[in-house]
Write a structure and sequence with these properties.
This protein is an alpha+beta fold. Helix content is 27%, strand content 27%. The protein has a 4-stranded antiparallel β-sheet, covered by helices on one side. Strands 5-4-3-6 form a 4-stranded antiparallel β-sheet. The chain starts with 25 loop residues before the first strand and ends in a 7-residue tail after the last strand.
């Protein structure tokens, strides 16, 4: 016998319990200038699945530092921000993430700063963070492949490379699924100095 009563909707996914400070890893980002942040965040809000879009547009340098490294990270990031000049960068095009889309960034200067941080924390990096990243700003993720391809096809004709300067770095605590900004530093070093 078939029932005419519709089946109930699936239960929502269980909420993740926020991580306590003792277990919450740290994320290091390259901060974006205000105009680029506004533009890329608008793209992210328009194309990222809203039920998963908990973050503003960002460039991740390191995905997970152990909570025990907090004080060392605070000191080192502050020191490097004072020593390094704001690195030049360029959004070169779109990056295909398979099930998503990102803005691909080239910045040898930012990668050099990241390499210096990685060298300092050699032995304490996760497997994901042991390799230099392909710098990018994710504007869409976890969507069907066809959806990602359609966005890339729609954005490609109007895309123009964009030069900018990274103004600083940020340190965030991963609260699962949200990030909590702990501190940002502006680069203050002189170019060529």
């Amino acid at each position: 016998m078939v029932s005419d009563t519709p089946s109930p909707p699936p239960a929502p996914a269980p909420l993740q319990t926020p991580l306590p400070d003792s277990a919450a890893p740290f994320i290091v980002t390259a901060e974006l200038p205000a105009d680029l942040l506004a533009w890329s965040d608008a793209l992210r809000r328009a194309h990222f699945p809203p039920e998963r879009n908990w973050l503003k547009a960002h460039v991740t340098l390191f995905h997970a530092f152990a909570p025990s490294l907090r004080e060392e990270l605070l000191g080192l990031l502050g020191q490097y921000a004072g020593e390094y000049a704001p690195p030049r960068a360029r959004i070169e095009g779109l990056m295909d993430l398979g099930g998503g889309t990102a803005l691909a960034i080239r910045s040898p200067g930012m990668l050099a700063i990241r390499a210096a941080i990685a060298e300092r924390f050699h032995g304490a990096l996760t497997a994901q963070d042991r390799h230099p990243p392909r710098l990018h700003i994710t504007i869409q993720n976890k969507v069907p492949r066809a959806t990602a391809q359609a966005l890339q096809a729609g954005l490609s004709p109007q895309f123009k490379p964009h030069d900018f300067i990274f103004p600083g770095m940020g340190l965030h605590i991963y609260r699962r699924p949200h990030w909590e900004e702990l501190r940002t530093w502006r680069f203050r070093g002189k170019e060529g100095g």
